[in-house]
């Protein structure tokens, strides 16, 4: 469908939805009248899916309706984002996505949606640090030894990631640039397969979110070489940041946001956002997020404007990095 025709269809759908639901005050009182779908661009069991299911369960308390998690995988999250951008804007379909919303315009030559203009912004969700981990029998015992090992064995070292457009892919690109060593990258169809390959010794390194790596680090199943935040993590206070260990300015934090199709009723977007903020303050949710090393953003970022701002900033930040790396997909 051509962009102009798609825009007309979206406008007609939004108008039909508005006419069907009547005045805003009536919608605010009746919404939600049925289950809400939260689309996850990645496989079940992955970091984004874990967060989505945790929040969806907690949001039911405020919404009084089930939040159905729908995993729509493929193409670095663009399949899910496209589906939500084209969904009926009636307030019953939402998308949770991470930094991939900001990197997609640079990664994909042909993108069927515009992340900046084809969605209603709901809120940021959480910030998740990244960790650089290696297989448990990798000879290097710390990051200093790892750098030496990489320079001596660059052609033999494999760096896994969860697929083009995944944050592990982005982190891997930045890491290779920072250490100045060309490593062989191995893409997988999701975080779980990439982690399984690391656990099985088929690959050597993986840069991924604490929501995925923490259990394996704590069990000793993988080696932790550093964290990607500006300061050390409370979860692993003895582990220095990569910046501390010589990669000056190296910082990658995974931020998540929730979006709705353009033209979705403001009352529905606002109510969904309020339920999200309530869920993030739930003691059980907060405790679990802290355990996984994730952090809830400040109140000013838990807003539509907060999400719009970071999306714009990150789009400008990562575009040149991706283009310099020559990482593109059709």
Automatic annotation (TrEMBL):
Q: Which UniProt keywords apply?
A: Signal
Look up keyword rRNA-binding and say if it applies.
no
Q: Signal: is it a keyword of this entry?
A: yes
The signal peptide stretch is 1-28
Family to which the UniProt record says this protein belongs: Belongs to the UPF0065 (bug) family.
- Protein name from the UniProt record: Tripartite tricarboxylate transporter substrate binding protein BugD
Q: What is the scientific name of the source organism?
A: Sphaerotilus natans subsp. natans DSM 6575
Classification from the root reads: Bacteria, Pseudomonadati, Pseudomonadota, Betaproteobacteria, Burkholderiales
């Amino acid at each position: 469908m051509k962009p102009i025709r798609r825009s007309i269809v979206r406008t007609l759908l939004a108008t039909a939805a508005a006419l069907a639901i009547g005045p805003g005050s009536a919608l605010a009182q009746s919404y939600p009248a049925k289950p809400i779908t939260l689309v996850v661009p990645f496989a079940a069991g992955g970091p984004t899916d874990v967060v989505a299911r945790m929040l969806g369960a907690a949001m039911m308390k405020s919404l009084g309706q089930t939040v159905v998690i729908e995993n729509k995988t493929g193409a670095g999250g663009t399949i899910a984002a496209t589906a939500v951008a084209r969904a009926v804007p009636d307030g019953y379909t939402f998308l949770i996505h991470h930094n991939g919303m900001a990197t997609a315009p640079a990664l994909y030559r042909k993108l069927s949606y515009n992340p900046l203009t084809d969605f209603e912004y709901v809120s940021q969700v959480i910030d998740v640090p990244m960790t650089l981990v290696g297989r448990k029998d990798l000879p290097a015992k710390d990051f200093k030894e790892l750098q030496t090992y990489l320079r001596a064995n660059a052609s033999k070292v494999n760096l896994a990631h969860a697929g083009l457009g995944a944050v592990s892919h982005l982190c891997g690109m930045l890491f290779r640039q920072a250490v100045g060593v060309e490593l062989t990258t191995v893409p997988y169809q999701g975080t779980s397969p990439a982690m399984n390959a690391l656990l099985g010794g088929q690959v050597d390194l993986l840069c991924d979110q604490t929501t995925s790596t923490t259990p394996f680090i704590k069990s000793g199943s993988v080696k932790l070489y550093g964290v990607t935040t500006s300061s050390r993590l409370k979860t692993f206070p003895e582990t220095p940041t990569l910046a501390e260990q010589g990669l000056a300015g190296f910082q990658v934090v995974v931020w998540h946001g929730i979006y709705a199709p353009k033209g979705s009723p403001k009352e529905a977007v606002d109510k969904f956002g309020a339920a999200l903020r309530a869920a993030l303050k739930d003691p059980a949710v907060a405790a679990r997020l802290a355990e996984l090393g994730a952090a809830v953003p400040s109140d000013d970022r838990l807003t539509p404007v907060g999400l719009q701002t970071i999306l714009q900033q990150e789009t400008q930040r990562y575009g040149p990095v991706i283009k310099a790396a020559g990482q593109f997909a059709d």
